[in-house]
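Input.
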Amino acid sequence: MKNLILIVEDNKDLAQLLEKILQFQGYITQIAHNGEDGWSKVVDEEPKVVVTDVNVPKMNGFKLLQKIKKHYKNIEVIIITADSDTRDGAEAIEMGAFGFIHKPFDNQDLIDLIEKVFNNE
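Output.
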């Protein structure tokens, strides 16, 4: 779906907050609370953007990123993590992620990254 954003986040409160922020910006969103559910929604819906936490159950964010980039080159992935290790960010970008954000983050940083995806069409 052209302007669908899939949020893959196991923290339900954070997932709902991200959903509200993005919907307020006019985007259509869906939530998955684990990597396997996220992958199923990618296959069924083909979102424009996937925003995924690194540490989600059943398939972590890096494995989900790899799978998406192998099968859907046109879907952009933004990785979010609470881990302060900057190597994760570099690794995510090398693996094809569009961007990488550390928690806690400024909501505007996420919005700016997503707008870059949509402006690159």
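The longest strand covers residues 76-81.
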